[in-house]
Design brief:
By secondary structure, the protein is mainly alpha-helical. The chain has 17 helices and 2 strands.
């Protein structure tokens, strides 16, 4: 029970911190999208996507390896942290050279070129700051991580609000992001020095070699899994920055939710998964299936919101300039069901030490995604008439316009990854780790979808629809016995951990 309470406390800490970050990121995304317009906002998101891909390769998967290995011996976390800091500094220099080649090789215009270099500084500093998570998660003290992230995001929001008030352009706003990231790096360093041990730039050559070799597969897997970033870059080059802006605003709610709930949940529980893989595989399988069920239930509700309320959400949040984001949001909503399950499988692959095959599978998935984006955007761009799936474009109807080629390709890639990783993990554990009792949640989702549709027809305010549908969905899950006694005990533990 102490293990459950510790994990519950860490989940609460990370979800609380990520919840505040979700609010901040949504507010910033909405404000900047409306303030900058689809063209400049598209340039900003494309620049960030390009740099995000570059800095993944500077970090590789070394932090994940360190957390996995230090989960059973947290006293070693300081040595791992110091070595990874040095390695990331070295790799960051290489990423700057690669950025120069890409900017001029891809022929980016002046605004995007400047934004790329500022964004690269943001992501390099952020990558260095994220190294300190090793101490927080190895000691399972996620509350410190939450405090650091919340402080940084609130500081950033204040800076952006000031920039909008002063009517600054996108480049000045990018420099404000850079300043907030410097603040994040400094307070992370101070927090680790105060609570654990003072970080030092100290390289342990044997450990460095081990981390690089072990981390390369994870780094490649994360790089290949950056579907949204790759899609934004391809969309900008094929159909323009405005289309990339529309894709970005549609992907923002999903990415914020993923960061808040899914990544927080897996980040809090990953040390436990690594330990159980070595000590209690039967218990680990039960834990995986339970988490798979929770993620499936949540993803169905998200899919309902995107399908039935996509029009209203985009118009309320971003305005009429982003009408082409509506079908993107609806298709991404369908993909959420797959993506949530895959994130669980990603962590399962790392926990059982299958980084190399994991990287290979995601590499093939990335190839399917990239080629799919090019293929589907090209086909949809050449159509004389817009295809609408599901009747009219209102309600659950989806317009197939060129930018929707991105989420269509994403769903194809996610299906491939889900099937292949499920087979690999079934062979590893001699049974499936994805839960198979879909009946209750699916019935609850269908009935809730009918309720949302009816409430929309009689013009109930969207806020009331969001709340009432969530309540009804939860009650239906209970009535259909989608929860067992163990689930109730877990929920009680989470509530008691939150109260403390």
């Amino acid at each position: 029970m102490s293990e459950v309470r510790r994990v519950a406390g860490n989940i609460i800490a990370l979800v609380t911190g990520k919840g505040i970050r979700l609010l901040v990121s949504l507010v910033l995304g909405v404000l900047l999208a409306r303030y900058l317009g689809d063209l400049h906002y598209g340039n900003w998101t494309v620049a960030r996507s390009l740099c995000a891909l570059l800095t993944i390769l500077t970090g590789l998967g070394m932090s994940k390896i360190a957390i996995r290995e230090c989960s059973s011996r947290p006293d070693e976390a300081g040595r791992y942290l110091n070595t990874i800091l040095v390695l990331r500094l070295i790799f960051s220099l290489a990423s700057i050279l690669v950025a120069l080649l890409l900017v001029y090789g891809l022929g980016y215009r002046a605004e995007i070129a400047y934004l790329v270099f500022v964004a690269l500084g943001i992501y390099i500093l952020s990558s260095l700051g994220e190294v300190f998570v090793i101490q927080f998660r190895s000691h399972e003290k996620m509350g410190y991580e939450a405090v650091v992230n919340i402080s940084k995001d609130i500081f950033l929001m204040l800076l952006v609000l000031l920039a909008i008030y002063l009517q600054w352009g996108v480049l000045r706003i990018a420099f404000l992001y850079l300043g907030a990231t410097v603040f994040y790096l400094v307070i992370s360093w101070i927090m680790v020095a105060k609570k654990f041990s003072s970080p030092r730039l100290s390289l342990d050559p044997p450990l460095a070699r081990h981390l690089v070799l072990a981390g390369i597969p994870i780094g490649l897997a994360v790089f290949f899994n950056s579907f949204h970033d790759v899609t934004r870059i391809i969309v900008e080059k094929t159909i323009g920055a405005s289309a990339a802006g529309n894709y970005s605003v549609a992907a923002l709610p999903y990415m914020a939710l993923e960061s808040t709930v899914v990544i927080s949940l897996m980040g809090a529980i990953f040390p436990l998964l690594s330990r159980l893989h070595l000590s209690d595989r039967l218990g680990l399988i039960g834990l995986y299936r339970r988490m798979s069920r929770y993620l499936f239930m949540l993803s169905l509700l998200v899919a309902l919101y995107c399908l039935f309320l996509g029009d209203e959400l985009i118009l309320i949040l971003y305005g009429k300039d982003y009408l082409n984001a509506i079908p993107v949001l609806k298709i991404l909503g369908l993909g959420v069901v797959l993506m949530f399950q895959n994130y669980l499988l990603f962590n399962a692959m790392v926990a059982c030490g299958k980084e190399k095959i994991f990287a290979l599978v995601l590499g093939l998935g990335a190839l399917i995604n990239g080629l799919g984006v090019i293929l589907f955007t090209g086909i949809l761009s050449r159509l004389d008439q817009t295809i609408v799936i599901g009747g009219s474009a209102s309600g659950v109807g989806i317009r197939l316009i060129p930018v929707t080629g991105g989420p269509i390709a994403l769903i194809m890639a996610q299906i491939f990854i889900l099937v292949v990783l499920s087979i690999i993990l079934r062979r590893e554990y001699k049974r499936g780790i994805i839960f198979s009792r879909f009946y209750g949640p699916v019935v609850a989702a269908v009935l809730t979808g009918g309720l949302i549709r009816w409430e929309g027809v009689i013009s109930i305010p969207i806020g009331a629809i969001l709340i009432s549908s969530a309540v009804v969905y939860g009650l239906l899950l209970v009535v259909l016995r989608s929860f067992d006694r163990t689930d109730l005990d877990i929920f009680k533990t989470l509530i008691s951990a939150n109260q403390k």
